Amino acid sequence: MKLMENALNWFEIPVHQIDRARGFYEQVFAIQMQPMVVGNNLKMALFPVSPGSVGGALCEHSGFYKPSHEGTLVYLNGNPDLQEMLDKVEDFGGRVIIGKTQISPVYGYMAVFEDTEGNRVALRSMS
Asked: What are the angstrom distances between the C-alpha of 114 and each of 50, 69, 97, 119, 122?
């Protein structure tokens, strides 16, 4: 049986308005995202990542992406303590769905929020 190096290789979070969504994620995570427009008017904002790690982006294209509470739930890195990010969610237009909750002492903590676009997104941290 072949093993996968990482189960996750890339992720895309659908958005209605790329600038609004980018502002939300930059403020909540205290990061700078890289904007880009690719073929067929696909607008993206890339999350910053270290070389060799898994990356992802916010994506706007009305014919292909639709923000949702249904389907796959992406857990973003909330280390060192996801509460720092969760505390900013409502200040920047999102909504906390599940507050910080311990998964187990081994797996740390999780939380779920709704972003400005109507997506259900999760956080995970060890403390």
From this structure: 26, 8, 7, 5, 9
10-residue averages of pLDDT along the chain (127 residues): 84 98 98 96 96 95 94 95 98 98 97 98 97
Please give the residue range of the domain that contains residue 109: 10-62+71-125
Whole-prediction pTM value? 0.94
Alpha carbons 80 and 87: distance in angstroms, whole number? 14
Name 34's bridge partners: 46
What CATH number should be reported for the domain holding residue 98? Answer: 3.10.180.10
Is 5 among the domain residues? no
Residue 38: count other Cβ atoms within 10 Å of its Cβ.
10
